[in-house]
Design brief:
heterodimer; A: mainly alpha; B: 16-stranded antiparallel barrel; 3-stranded antiparallel β-sheet; 1 helix
Chain lengths: 74, 431
């Protein structure tokens, strides 16, 4: 229970750090945000690299990819 | 007179402008549209690795510990989009991936280095999602299958739910389950070997390993071999992986957006690999033995910033911890530079560092009293660096007809374990 509270508090602090002040952005103001290079995910072309990392490194996850199953990796 | 004329013209233009804003009533009612092909992605990658200390040979550094690998990966993704009578957007994606690899260490599953050193992995995927723009929600379902040389098979299922708020934020929760079956392919010295002097007296099956490393079975009835050799049915063990992922993304201002993602991962079953040797300090070898449960907690942060008109800064950091004692940090920065609005070059750098699991020790360092043991260097303490660049070309009218986007990327990867790898990848998008 204490660990959960610490985790929640930690995530909230980090969220405050990362998103300090969100100003309202209208749809017509999103030309830069909607640029294909601004996507908040890995690129499709990175697939082979990410696959190799899951085999060669001991940790994975938190990047919308594999977390350990479905391959000969850890 | 001129003033009157100008007033009349002005009024006429105002009326014209006003009517031009009247919307066609037909456009407000949704018309269902059947699923139509939206885009096709072809992704290919070639991976080339040189290394020693292979896990198959328990981290040996001589020629038997050769860890050289090549991998040619090809994937095809097809996406269809349509709208149902309620105006909800339906997306259906089907994918097929085929990887072919060669691995020098795989040959040493047979102690003389005569086993097969290549394999093919096939992995089809199917994903469906439905997006309700009025409610700002999206629901998805997905299925995954993988079969490869050293894996009997793997089945994956996932479901996800996303909700957007009115402040350009989006929360997503996703549940993922992988049900794997691992073939218990043992190093050849651990497989019972047929011998005329040791013919079993009762009904049984004896596994033998041929010189080429292929495993075969001899069936005995009343001490007599029946039916000769047949392909062995190698037993398998289960490995299950369940993941709950939470992510939140937020547009911060007109130039910046970020996200936080956290996975809660639980694995159970056979979590080692049966052909990974461990050499004890006595010089005798055995098979890797790891706990049957693992909890993982990776937390990732992304922050992207559009600097000026031509430069984008993409950053990523991940903290990882698990109950085997591993802790890792990953930091990544990529800076796409737009040479023109449709061509960009993206140099990147990635740094990774991990602390070993509690059960790792190098070649001939484990003792017979250790409960769990592995000499797999993927679980050792090391740091790695990766750098390279990509080029992306996506003109609005396409490159050659339906080819909408072309992206090529090269990465050079080094580990402090002496592993060095190069990866070159290609993504072609057709619309």
């Amino acid at each position: 229970m204490t660990k959960t509270r610490i985790l929640t508090a930690g995530l909230s602090t980090l969220a405050t750090f990362f998103f300090p002040s969100c100003s309202p952005v209208k749809e017509y103001q999103k030309s830069r945000i909607n640029d294909s290079e601004m996507i908040l995910a890995n690129r499709k072309v990175e697939k082979t690299e990410l696959n190799a990392q899951t085999y060669r490194e001991g940790s994975s996850g938190a990047n919308s990819g594999k977390t350990g199953g479905g391959c000969g990796c850890n | 007179m001129r003033k009157i004329c100008l007033t009349v013209v002005g009024m006429y233009l105002m009326l014209l402008h006003a009517f031009s804003q009247v919307t066609n009533t037909d456009s407000t009612s949704y018309k269902p549209k059947k699923l139509k092909l939206d885009e096709v992605n072809l992704v290919s990658g070639y991976y080339d690795q040189t290394a020693d200390k292979s896990a198959v040979m328990g981290g040996r550094t001589d020629y038997k510990g050769n860890g050289d690998v090549t991998d040619l990966a090809n994937g095809l993704d097809i996406k269809f989009i349509g709208w149902d009578p309620k105006g909800r957007k339906n997306s259906l994606s089907a994918g097929l991936g085929i990887d072919y690899h060669t691995a020098a260490s795989q040959a040493y599953v047979d102690s003389n280095g005569h086993a097969r050193n290549n394999g093919t992995r096939i992995y089809p995927t199917l994903d469906w999602s439905i997006e309700n723009e009025k409610k700002a929600t999206e629901f998805g379902l997905g299925a995954y299958y993988s079969a490869e040389h050293n894996y009997y098979h793997s089945i994956g299922l996932n479901t996800s739910l996303s909700k957007k708020n009115h402040h350009n934020g989006e929360f997503t929760v996703k549940f993922n389950g992988y049900l794997d079956r691992i073939k218990m392919i043992l190093p050849s010295e651990f497989i019972p070997v047929d011998s005329i002097k040791n013919v079993p007296a009762t009904d049984s099956v004896v596994y033998i390993t041929t010189a080429s490393g292929r495993t075969e079975a001899l069936t005995y009835v009343n001490g007599q071999a029946v039916g000769g050799k047949s392909k062995a049915v190698i037993p398998s063990k289960a490995r299950d992986t369940y993941t709950v992922s939470f992510s939140f993304s937020q547009v911060i201002d007109q130039r910046m957006q970020g996200s936080i993602a956290m996975d809660l991962v639980y694995q159970s079953g056979y979590l080692g690999l049966p052909f990974h040797r461990v050499y004890l300090n006595t010089g005798k070898d055995t098979i890797e033995n790891l706990p049957s449960q693992r909890f993982k907690l990776p937390i990732g942060f992304r922050l992207n910033y559009f600097l000026g008109d031509n430069i984008i800064i993409r950053t990523y950091y991940r903290f990882y911890i698990d109950n085997w004692g591993m802790i890792s940090h990953t930091a990544n920065i990529e800076v796409p530079i737009k040479i023109t609005p449709f061509i960009s070059i993206s140099p990147f750098y990635r740094y990774y560092v991990q602390k070993a699991v509690n059960y790792f020790a190098p070649y001939e360092k484990h003792t017979a009293s250790d409960q769990y043991y592995t000499s797999n260097y993927a679980l050792a303490s090391f740091s790695s660096q990766s750098f390279g660049a990509g080029i992306r070309i996506a003109p609005p009218k396409g490159i050659f007809g339906s080819l909408n986007m072309l992206e090529i990327r090269y990465a050079h990867y080094t580990q402090t374990t002496d592993l060095v790898a190069d990866v070159i990848s290609l993504n072609l998008k057709f619309k």
